[in-house]
Amino acid sequence: MKPAASRSDVGASYASDSKQLQAPRYRWREECGVFGVWSGNRPVADVCYLGLFALQHRGQESAGIAVSDGMHVDLEKGMGLMTDVFKTRVPSLKGHCAIGHVRYSTFGGTSFANIQPIFASFASSSGGGFVCLAHNGSLVNAKKLRAQLEARGCVFQSTSDSESMLNLIVLNSAPTIEEKILSSLETVEGAYSLALVAGVRDDADNTHEARLIGVRDPHGFRPLCLGRLGERGEYVLASESCALDAAGAEFVRDVQPGEMVVVSRKGIRSFFLRKKARPASCVFEYIYFARPDSTIDGLNVWQARYRMGRQLAREFREGYPGVAPDAVVPVPDTGIAAAIGFSAESGVPYAEGLIKNRYVGRTFILPEQNVRRSTVGMKLNPLRENLKDRKVILIDDSIVRGTTSARLINLLRKAGAAEIHMCVSSPPITHPCYYGIDTSIRKELIAAVSTVEEIHKTIGTDSLHYLTLRGLLESVNDAEGEKMCTSCFHGRYPTDVTEVAL
Ligand code: AMP
Q: How far is the CA of 399 from the centre of ligand 1 (A)?
């Protein structure tokens, strides 16, 4: 039995990129996507590739896939897009259980060592084995966990909080891998949706098997869903349901907050973490982050955005009764559904006014602010014929730092727009996210340091209108504010954030 990824199992990119290892900087904020697949017998690396490819929008800095037969792990990972990392190797990855990860780190973590999945072996009274882990989310007690593990002699290879979880799991003394995970996660605080492959050896009957495990933290900050592939008892796990479609799987259900699902030869088993917490799934997944063709916790993302747009139109009408706009123009892509909703509610015609270069990635997915600034113009070009002399309602999903909006307003003015009324389908972002969405440190958030009136002047609009928090919550079926995390709009966090507060 070989419960470890040997050097030769790791892809060629390891050698070339390992030069980039950096000294640790203790700051973790990541946007990521995870995918997992289990089959009783056939190789599944290609299914994992397809699923992960559909999650590329969740992270464009690095990608990795780990495939196992329960005895060996074949791990391929590297910096860049899926198509950069898996140019040739996917078909040769062997094994009937796989997990994958796409990652975008925002700070201090751009190194090969931080690319996931990550791997560690463990011992147990019945045999031992190994675990590969892929994590979406961000922990709020990572520093403390890391210090405790280092005091126990743990040597870390990366700066990521995910490695602490992996170490906690493999060092835990519980007899089964399921118990190790449940017990070790009791000390972990914050956001984690995990996909794991566990290779489990049983010395008594000399067998080994690969299990696919999915875990969602007790608040359910990040999404995670379960799908079925055909009738062969094959299952997949994914950050978003759009990845199930891409992998040819049928949606079964969302993994519940606090739930762990285990797929193995025994079928699907469900366990619950001992820690209980109020549900707090991230509303920003609906506003911006998730793909519109995904359904999260029973609500389709496009529908949610459409409803935000309708609500925004109602609120705009009350706030600005004197404005008679000619066109509703979205900032593509994430403003489109809200603009369609706004147009339907207000009767103002929908028009394309900004054309996106589809080969430029998300503006935000570039860690440095100066690079981010210069890419706005490369990414979006005005459609002058639809803008000239028109009074435009410009719809975007959010204003974070204000860089994008200021540039867009400038573009629209140069293209001849007569008036620009910007309507934003979320409330002002006044507080950072500590649970895995990059919404910056507080002083960089324009709404944390400026009033709406000041923002309107800074970005150069004729008027600026934000969706109210109440309107947002109604749009996502959470009128009482009991199910979602909306802390970036008011700073009341569902967990203690003392350790991470910026
Ligand atoms: P800015 O106000 O210049 O910081 O950027 C706002 C733009 O970035 C909006 O058009 C959003 O669509 C997009 N955006 C908002 N939040 C995020 C995020 N967490 N990650 C990536 N892009 C984002």
A: 6
State the pTM of this model: 0.92
Q: Given the structure tokens 């629209």, which residue do they identify? A: 412
pLDDT at 172 over 90: yes
Greatest Cα pair distance in the chain? 79
Which residue is associated with the tokens 């397809």?
50
Q: What's the CATH number of domain 5-14+30-277, 3.40.640.10, 3.40.50.1440, 1.10.8.50, 3.60.20.10?
A: 3.60.20.10
For ligand 1, the distance from its centroid to the CA atom of residue 290, given in whole angstroms, is: 13
Q: How far are the Cα atoms of 29, 247, 482, 485 from residue 132, in angstroms, in the given order? A: 21, 21, 34, 29
Cis status, amide bond into 117, omega within 30 of 0: yes
Ligand 1 nearest atom to the CA of residue 399, by list position: 2
Total Cβ atoms within 10 A of residue 388: 12
- pLDDT of res. 27: 41
Domain ranges of the chain: 5-14+30-277, 299-489
Q: Evaluate: CB of 401 within 6 angstroms of ligand 1.
A: yes
Strand locations in 110-192 (E): 118-122, 127-136
Binning pLDDT at 50, 70 and 90, where does residue 127 land?
confident
Closest atom, ligand 1, to C-alpha of 439: 19
Measured from the CA of 335, which atom of ligand 1 is nearest?
Answer: 12
Residues serving a catalytic function are 32
Mean pLDDT of 43-59: 96
CB 57 less than 6 A from any atom of ligand 1? no
pLDDT higher than 70, residue 437: yes
CATH class of the domain whose range is 299-489? alpha beta
